[in-house]
């Protein structure tokens, strides 16, 4: 297996295999011959027991990628740094901002990265912290997008997200980024929550990588609150992107997954903690 063909395992998700802990959050372990990457950490309670069970030991990871600064992706940074003080962290600086979700019938909910985790990031040495502001290769054949241009008229961040508790200023979640992995049959795209929108994300990756072929898409696609028009547009775009498989999980939403299954011929498998994908089998 070449170094360009990683294996992946979802280690934290809203759903979990028997014996693993489920929580609203996401974390994916990516492993090549030369490099191990932890993509997000979940919200804090599941990463430790799950990685102990799956033997994806954060102490052995080389890189920690934070897709964006929501609590459900950044809650176990303390555990990762405690196990692995030398790990290199990759994120966009806006991960440290204050943010809220505000539904009209409820009090504002703080959904930022927890303060104790923010402090740990702020105290990292420059040599261990890599701010990503543009498409960047972080390991052989593995890249991060940095901020993704918001172009499609029907795509939004996917919820009532604000930077203030009064709900005056919408949070554009500019820190949201995706990862892509080169494989012989095209790119494998990994999304955290996909707050930039799936169409915007895939189009930007195609442009940045100069590769049109998409072999697969895995991660949270945040389509729970998507309008019918957006769901149709996303499905049409997926038909055009023509991935061999999609592994939607975390915040994608069951209705969107069902809609994809009914309207696409692509293989669609809902992800869960414990799910494993070996890109070495894709040759
Ligand atoms: Zn999320
Ligand atoms: Zn999010």
Automatic annotation (TrEMBL):
Molecular functions (GO terms): transferase activity
Segments forming domain Metallo-beta-lactamase: 24-250
InterPro entries referenced in this protein's UniProt entry, alphabetically: DHPS-like_MBL-fold, Metallo-B-lactamas, Metallo-beta-lactamase_dom, RibonucZ/Hydroxyglut_hydro
A matching Pfam family: Lactamase_B
CDD domains xrefs: DHPS-like_MBL-fold
PANTHER family in UniProt: METALLO-BETA-LACTAMASE SUPERFAMILY PROTEIN, METALLO-BETA-LACTAMASE SUPERFAMILY PROTEIN (AFU_ORTHOLOGUE AFUA_3G07630)
Protein name, per record: Metallo-beta-lactamase domain-containing protein
Organism (species): Pontiella sulfatireligans
